[in-house]
Amino acid sequence: MTRKISILLVCCFILATHVVEAFYFPLHAPVSFCTPAVQKYHEAEHRSLCKSDINMFVNRLDSVETVIPYDYDRYDFCQSQQEYSPSENLGQVVFGERITSSPYNFTFGKNNTCKKVCTKSYKAGGEEAEKAEMKHKLNFLLRGIQLNYQHHWIIDNMPVSWCYEVLIGSRYCSPGFPIGCYVDKDGNRKDACVIDAHYERAQHYYVFNHINITIFYQPLIDDTNLLVSAKLEPLSMKHKTPDECVFLNSLNYEPMSLQKSDLNKDLDITYSYSVHFIPSPNVYWASRWDYILDSMPHTNIQWFSILNSLVVILFLSGMLLILLRKLYKDISRYNQQDLEKAQEESGWRVVHGDVFRPPKGGMLLSIFLGTGAQIIITSFLTLGLACLGLLSPANRGSLMTCVMVLYVLLGFIAGYVSSRIYKTFGGERWKSNVLSTSFLIPGIIFGIFFILNLILWYEHSSAAIPFSTLVAILALWFFVSTPLVLIGAYFGLKRPIEFPLPTNEIPRHIPKRSCCTRPLPGIIMGGILPFGCIFVQLFFILNGIWSHQVYYMFGFLSLVAIILVITCSEATIILCYFHLRAENYHWWWRSFVTSGFTAIYFFIYCIHYFASKLTMHGWASTVLYFGYTIIMVILFFLFCGTMGFFACFLFVTKIYGSLNQIKSISSPQEIDMTPTMAGFWSSMLEYFILTTLFLLYHAIAFFVYAKDTLMALASETASKVRQDYDIPVKMKKRKRGKKGGVHVRARLRKRKFRPALPSIVTGNC
């Protein structure tokens, strides 16, 4: 057993080292670009055509301070004369992506220093309706600037990224850039206003109306080229006249600033851009996403968390090996005894006639297990495809599409597992079981999702799913998933699971429970260790969801998922054994809830993340955050609970199936009902001590090593930002220490620049 566990751990480690790197398949052919002269030459020679026009697309605008994204058209920006929206898959629609054409179009190889796109004029005079519409547009723009809404532009299916230095020699590339920045009444520059000393006037909004775009391309031998990256720099620039676009330089210009009082004045905002093409022969098209993925937060902290998780597995595996060794001796001794001595036994052996007694609420448990098995297989198949590079960020919406399609197609698994377990419990209402498996959990999830979608409709958000897409989802549910559940149930009802021992007709009396043998302490204790193994990875997942960061660490996620399965299984088996030793045979529901309780810790962590890491504005964002969180908690509860149940089921079946002869006892009351609690208390104390020691070790090691490392990076970054942008600093003297000397702490008077400092760098872990 030890050798098998060691081999499993080594394989997991080797797998992780190979799949944590950024790796993906583009899954679409590259597009060749060339100058107009080369394009005409190729047309004359009837050669493969290349494109000279570069079309840029715009996506939804989102913010880290709200969960409500908006279409590009909701803001009064320049619009494309030819509106064109590429087809979107199911995942893109569910995620709220709304890609459409933009007025920014370029000719390959043609540089432009300053080209006007359009001018938006707002007149204070006119009719009341026009004045109200003007104020509404400007107020909506100023609110978007204050909430730090971000543009998302796309060229050749590649994000136009905003790259900036966060550490000395280290750059971070964001797939979005802000529409502007804001300086409050105290002169504190918020968000992107720290990038330029021009943005310093109090109570002013700065609109980023000029964009410097740099397009890098890989030259080919036939005078064609492949685009390998596109980067930009946003600026706020006030043009002299609405019809003139003259860009002087990055140091000598007047920014385009607005105030609330400007809503009653005539106002013109001119949008412009500059574009330059630079050859990049050392960067290849197949690896053009690497510069974005490689600029993501470093992976040292993830390896540290995985090391801690492996320590947990070693703890639990050691306890499990001791337990199995003790069980082997008990089974050998029990099989050699005669019937008279067997009747004097106590502990887990005397409940062999009741351990397979069907639980109360067997139908509900079977439904949970069927849906949980469906979620488990969907999760691991999705992770497998992601590790193979088939669900890369270049394939937009592929991750969500894959999850939904796999979940629907795996309805067969849910029906099979649920019906077979229900048949094993002796249930007769198989029709109710099948229909409940198909509609209970999916119905709850869809109900919550529909309520959240109503809120998004009310807010006119781009994330609101259209009615036609909802109909398509319902069609997949009713006409694909439900028939597959019925087919799976047909095969599952054919033959129930056969237990190794029969069940007594009279239920055995369970001795009086002590504090530790009650359900709640064991359930609370059983979820601590699995959550301790995954909470660092949860931080990155939540950052990817709510902070709109690119998440592509599927190798780490796969390894953490395997660790989660192992810890859930081992913790549930150990606690199940403790309760069987206490002659408590009600293990069915307890094994499910014990490992499923990890989801409660996940929910508590989401509350902590909301309170400490996010700054949500408005009731709608709060409701949406907790609504989506509840959906994730339900799915995670079923995932962990099902994993723990089947591990415990295999354990119980194995140990009771090892008894060679059935010690049938005519009357349960003839046995001494006083349990021998000395061994139970010893094992429970051992488990509690190991759990406590691990938690202390994990907390101290993580917060001393990881937190200090991250805070050192944040301090270095803050120093670099102050040097580059000349941000004022307050110096605060502290009392002298024992060894003398004056400790000086530098504190930025301006608020931290949130987009420029990723969460992992600012120490918000």
From TrEMBL:
It is found in: Membrane. It comes from the Eukaryota. The chain crosses the membrane at residues 303-324, 367-391, 397-418, 439-458, 470-493, 522-546, 552-580, 592-611, 623-652, 687-706. It is a multi-pass membrane protein. It comes from Strongylocentrotus purpuratus. The keyword rRNA processing does not apply. GO terms for cellular component: membrane. InterPro entries: EMP70. Keywords: Membrane, Signal, Transmembrane, Transmembrane helix. This is Transmembrane 9 superfamily member. The keyword Lipid metabolism does not apply. Belongs to the nonaspanin (TM9SF) (TC 9.A.2) family. One of its GO terms (biological process) is protein localization to membrane. Residues 1-22 form the signal peptide.
